[in-house]
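FAQ: What does the model actually see?

It sees only this:
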Amino acid sequence: MINRIFSFIEENRRWGVFFTLFFSGSFVIGINVYSFGLFIEPLEKEFGWTREQISLGYSLSFVSSLFAPLVGKLIDIKGSKIFLVSSIFLVSAGFLLRPLMTDFSHWIILNSMVFAGYPGALMIPAGILIQVWFPETKGRMMGLATAGHNFGGLIMPIITFILLSYFDWKVSYFVFGILVFLLGIFALTVVKNKPSNLNVNSEVTNNDGFEFMSAVKTKQFITLTLGITFACFTYNGIMPQMVPHLTTEGLGLASATFAMTYIGAMGILSKIIFGRFSEKYSSLYLTCASVFLQSLALLIILMAQGNIMGIWLGIIIFGMGFAGLGAMIALNITECFGLKSLSTIWGTLSFFGIWATFLAPWMMGRIFDSTSSYRLGHLITIGIFLLAILFLLLTKYLNHGENYLFKKK
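And it is asked to produce this:
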């Protein structure tokens, strides 16, 4: 009887792990990416900061790349739970303390805290835990878990809009900090590094793959790093400033907020589709498709020249492409190098892409302050996206060599 109870708890604990990862993405990405643009004008009015200064706070996303190699290595050694839980609490503190800001340096410090929590709260544990707890359906479950990011995009801009309408930015950030703190308590209670139930497929202990030092010496590590770095310009350069971009292109604030909600909603469906397809087709090809759709969407919005129908067509296509990227990154690494050193490889890959995490938001803020528009920044980003596709395709080509151990059939 006791064994049956233990077995039941272990078999269902995986869903506690899943929902922790799902809502970690919902809260952190929903607040810090999808809703970031809604805080820009309130902060401008409160402190008199320029758009470039506010964007500089987001440029501190490079902090996540600084911590990623260390966090990745420690996760490979110690397991995911301790870093997942502590990172969630760190992000919570970064939001809870924002109502106390009185100086630009506080904005810099608190953004640094939030981004320091990214590797442990979002990036690396999900890539390991989902593949460990759901080995037979890891593609679709990775899609579902990372769909939490887009669920955050579905609900958080609306919640932010309501909070800012009835209260102010201080109350909004405090409420969000409490939400993330409660999630940390939940994670502390339910998350385990791996199943102990023998009924769970034994593949969870699979150690096939490259050693870290062997992986970083390959050509495909270089091309994959460049491909993912360029693809991730969308997180640091496009999404945080999408609301003000859409308003300058012709949408009202309410419509731009709804557009972010749509991108979040479409992203849920898109991640499920991309995740499911990744169990049959190469995740590298699917990542290329994701980036291409985003490039096409940005181009359509620019060509619309203020035409509302054209802008919405671009938004619809962007939502289809944007979501697939988040589900594919860990699967790209697994496809190339296996699970053995996934966390360390991912952390190192993120570190080598550190320049882009600073450059993208700074570039967007600088261009807006100089031209009162994001159009030039989006044109540059389209070119960067095309480079991402080129390097990802090159990675796929290199993986057809004799040492390619994890090729899709």
